[in-house]
Structure formats: C-alpha cells, structure tokens
Amino acid sequence: MGAFTAAAASAGGNPLWYATRSFGLVALALLTASVLLGVLTSQRIATPKWPRFASQALHRNVSLLALAVVGVHVLTTLMDTYVRITWWAAVVPFTSAYRTGYVALGTIAFDLLLVVTATSLARTLTGHRWWRLVHWSAYAAWPLALGHYLGTGTDARTSWGLLFALACLGAVSVAVLIRLAIERREGPVRVWGGGR
Amino acid sequence: MRLRVNPIACAAHGLCAELFPEWIQLDEWGYPIVDDEPIPPHLQVHARRAVAQCPTLALVAEKA
Amino acid sequence: MTTPARAPSATQTLRLLCGFAKTRQPASWSEHLAEHGPLPSGRRRRGGDPRLLELVDKSGLTGRGGAGFPTGRKLRTVAGSGRAAVVVANGMEGEPAAQKDALLLAVAPHLVLDGIELAARAVDANHAYVAVHRGSPASAVLRAAVAVRPEPPMPVTIAELPAHYVASEESALVHWLNGGAAKPTFVPPRPFERGVGGRATLVNNVETLAHLALIARHGSEWFRQVGDVGEPGTMLVTICGAVRHPGVVEVATGTAVGEVLRLAGGASAALQAVLVGGYFGTWMDAELALSLPLTQAGLRAVGGALGAGILIALPDSACGIAETAHVLGYLAGQSANQCGPCVNGLPAIAGALTDLARGSWSPARRGDLDRWLGLVPGRGACRHPDGAVRLAVSALQVFAADVHRHEASRPCAGALVPPALPVGAPVSGSWR
C-alpha cells in the first residue's frame, strides 16, 4: 500500500477507508435486522402468509450475512495503513492504540457475534440451555456495535449518519419492548378456554 | 428414523408442523402430535430439518 | 395420614403386618428380630449378589408400586450396570386415598430397611435412600429405626420430598435427589440406566422391598405358597369409600375384590361401582368388580389396572360423574405444569366432566370431551395425564346410563351432595 497522507485519507482518497466505513454501516443495518427478526422468532409473531420458519430462516441468514460483512469491515480496517490497528486488536479488546475504548466496543461485539454464531451452528450438539444462555449476549452485542459506530464512525458525525443510528436504535428499542411486553412466564403455553 | 417430542422442552412454537406437516400436526393448544411410524427415506430430510429448527430442541430423531 | 387401627381379621394373610397384628404397636428392633429373625448375612460385591438375584427371580416378586414389573428383572438390569448403583425406596404414596405404604412404614420400618439393605446388596449399591413426604410421620419413624439398627454396609439416607402428587414418579424422585425439582423428567434415560449421580438406580416401592426382606429369610418357595401363580405372595390393599371399616388389609394376591371388601367390614350401602387401582385405575361396575381377582393380569384382561392396590367403593347414592369430575379437577391441579397436553388437556377434561355433572351440556361439548380424551394420553413426560384420562374414560363407560341422563340435562341427586372420594389438600409451594 502506498503512503497516503493524512489529508488525502480524510478527504476520502483511500478506497479501503471507504470500504471500512460502508461495510461498517451495512453491518450495523444487518445486525439491527437480525435483532428484529430474532425477536419476531422468539415471540411467535406469524401469519399464515408469513410462517414462523420464515422468520427463523431469515434471522439465521441475515445474521450469517451480518457476520460476513463485519468480517470484511474488520479486514479492511486491518489492511488500511492510515489507522494502524494490529490484527490481534480485532479480537482482543483494549489493545488498539487508535481510539482504544471505541475500537474495543467493536472488538467485544465481534467476539460476542462469533460465539453466538458458533453456538447457534452447533446448537444440536451443545444443547438448548447453553445455546439460550449464550444467545442472550446477542442483545449485548448490538448496543456495543452501535456505540462503536457512534464513537469511531466517520459518518456518525453527519446528520444522515446520526439519523441512521437513531433509526436503528428506534427499531431495536421497539422490538425489545415488544418482547418484554409479551414475554411468557416459565412453563408451557396455556391456552385459556380450551377448544376452538 | 422416528420422531419423538420432549414434551417438557416443547414450548409450542409450532415450527415442526410447518416444516414437516406430513408427520406432525398441532393440537388445539399448539403442541405437536407426532406420527409414531418410521419415516420413509425420502421424507427424512424434512424430519431432520424440523429437528434442527425447533427453537427449543424438543424434537428428537431416534434411529429405527 | 392416619394409621388405621382396624383389627386385622383372621382371613387376611399376614406376612408384612404380622408383627403389628400381634402387638398392635410399631415393631421395635427387638420385636422385629423376634418376629422375623436376623437378616441373612452377606456383603456387597461387585456386580451384585448372584444368589440374591436368583432368589428374587425364582420368587416371582412383582413391584407393588403400581406397574407390577418383575422385581428380579429390574434388579438384574441395575446390577449389570458395571459400577456401584444406588437404591431408592419409594415411600411417597402420592394418592390421597392410599394408605398402605404409610401403614407399612409406621408399623414395620425395620422390614423395609431390611429390604433396602438386601436390594443394595443384590445390585451392588453403595448408597440407599428412602423417599417419604416431607414432615410425614414415616420420616421420624424411619430415622428412629435407622438409629437403633447395626451399621448397614451402605449409608441409608431418609429423603423428605415435597408431597406433590407427581413427585412420587421415579424420574421425579431421581431428579430431586440430584438437586432438581421433584418433577418428572423426559425419559430415556430411565433411572435404571442413569439415575442418582448418573449411576444406575433401582427405584422400588417400600412394600416390594419389605417382601424382599421376607423372601431372603424364608426362600422363594415359601413366598410362592400363597397368592396368584403368576404374581405370587401377599399384597397390601387400601380400602375406602362405602365400607364399614376403611383401612389397609394384607391379602394373598388374586383374592377377589368382593372378598377384600368383606375384610373391610363389607359394603356400608348398596354399591354401584368400585374404583379399582385408585386414581390411576378404572371404575368397574360393582357386580363385575366383586368377582375380579386382584392381579395385574386379571385386571388388565378386563381393561383395568391394579395400580398401588387401592379399592374405593362407590355407593348407589353417589354420582359417579360428579365424583370423577371432582377427582379430575384435583389431578389437573396436581400437574407438574411441564407438558402442554397435560397442562391444557386435564383442566379441559375436568371442566367438561363438571359441566356434564351439572347438566349444562350440549352435543358439541361431548365432541370436545371425546376429542380431548383421545388427544392427551401418551403425550406427557410421565404417565400422569394417561392415568387421569383412563379414569375419565372408564367413568364414561361404567356410568353410561348416568351420562345419558346428564346429557339430557337432568343431573342426578348424587351430583348435588359433596363428593365422597378423597382428594388431598392442594400442595402448594416448593418443588424442592
């Protein structure tokens, strides 16, 4: 990679820097969608035309896509020489010299995402209880990712970038509120009144 | 291959009946009624998918 | 649970209760030894005690807790697990009407403890438990008995479990002993495969173990001298309802139901039906029931079940539908609330039966009821819903004439009096 001056980079001359930013944005959008679909799945929100397995399959595929996009985002960040971030900073939090705290948020979110994905793929092996326990941390990964974007994201300082963050936050807040509102108590579903 | 439900784990999500209606129906409370018969080879792929997709892993595939 | 104090009559076959019949007191250690003699000596060995296993096989002893499974086969399975096993004596007796285990533990605790020691020897167990209801008189009696006995080859722990109806189910016992709730678990693995601490676990009713204590002393031939050929020996039977002297009797297996009722002083009123096997059993028309032999096979042949040896006599004046609705309501409330078909199905069935008893009925209701009765069995982790449905189905058959009358919205007078069948006070609170 050639030597880019700081001025050239901030002016947007470096394609890697663009890639990092855009993949970061897309990743946040996909993670938001994944959380929404996850809530939809867990709360059995379905219609005859939108069966439950559709939400679940979409949740799974969107999540895998999100992980892939996050992966590219991490990769382009590491390859970019403007900000020097060592490869281990991608997985070990608080080891980045550059914006230590905000990069760490992204790192932790990335780690959680890896664990959540791994346990989901190996769900039939690890058993339901473990999977469920680990899967709760997906709710932690999302705000971390948002914090990472607000803290380090170049575009978060523009008005559209802020609007984008707010839209994501609103969507997830509504989803979580829905989940809390209709979260069932322990035990089997009890249908009152019996019979159809 | 046969299918069994762990009724304690089952939380009536009903995905199994969507994915494998040939073998699984839901009762009026949303809980699966699973056919006891062995599943013919050409349908086993659907059975496996239903097992893997169950949100609470309550559907169990048993050999023979 | 009170200890029935009725005098055992001369026509009982007293083996388990003979000490009590003489002294009218719970057997002390010395009285126990005087009556039965010392426990044949022996020690634990790897893979169990082949002599004992063979003895039990030959005796033909079957489980007295309800299922009637051959005890010898069960012992062999556990003994063959390849490592030290665990023995659990089940004295939980969940049925409100049942009193036989409570009586046995009250009057012959040493016989049960002997049986536990022998079973542990037979299957090579290094720990034994006696499971009883928390706060029941049996736990104090057992503790006192353990204290005066010579040190057993393996520790015997008195385990006090919450008195929920389904807590007496064997997987529930094991789950509780493993630190969980006293609720049934999904099987397999069954306790004999993987039980307490992950080890093969023998769960036997306390009466079964008491018989084992006698078989070890007197031999299998002696054991087979009385009772049915296929299911030999004696059995404890709880009799309640419309009889003059409700309580527990010990009779040879295969004794006719009518004979057992006579031992309880005979019917105190004209009988219309007998509930054979308790709340896991079936209603039988009185005329048919009186001639039936008390064996698993004999009752199964007519669609019945021996259960844990409970007979409830229903007088003509009572309404079988109303009584059954009442019991179903109780059983619905005793669900462990784990499985959807049980949690939803039993209250629905109980509700329909209650409506039928009251005469608020429609043909559509009958359709619902029949559908639910077909929908629920076999779909729970344990047999609780199956037993409740069997009881309801037998009621609809045996009281068919009443059903007809009720369906025409003319409830009988019996539906208006308070129910006669005992149901326990609802056990609320902890499952630990």
Structure description:
The complex is a heterotrimer of chains A (196), B (64) and C (432). Chain A is 68% helix and 0% strand. Chain A is built from 8 helices and no strands. Chain B has one domain: Alpha-Beta Plaits (2-Layer Sandwich). Chain B has 2 helices and 4 strands; from the N terminus they run βαββαβ. With 432 residues, chain C is an alpha/beta fold. Chain C has 3 domains: 18-224, NADH-ubiquinone oxidoreductase 51kDa subunit (Rossmann fold, 3-Layer(aba) Sandwich), CATH 3.40.50.11540; 234-315, Ubiquitin-like (UB roll) (Roll), CATH 3.10.20.600; 320-416, NADH-ubiquinone oxidoreductase 51kDa subunit, iron-sulphur binding domain (de novo design (two linked rop proteins), Up-down Bundle), CATH 1.20.1440. A 5-stranded mixed beta sheet of chain C has the order 6-5-9-7-8, sandwiched between helices. Chain C has a 4-stranded parallel beta sheet with strand order 3-2-1-4, with helices on both faces. In chain C, strand 7 (271-276) and strand 8 (282-285) form a beta hairpin. In chain C, helix 3 packs across helix 9 (206-224). Chain C is globular, with a radius of gyration of 21 Å. Chains in contact: A-B, A-C, B-C. The interface between A and C is small, with 7 and 11 residues.
Offer a concise description of the structure.
The complex is a heterotrimer of chains A (196), B (64) and C (432). Chain A is mostly helical.
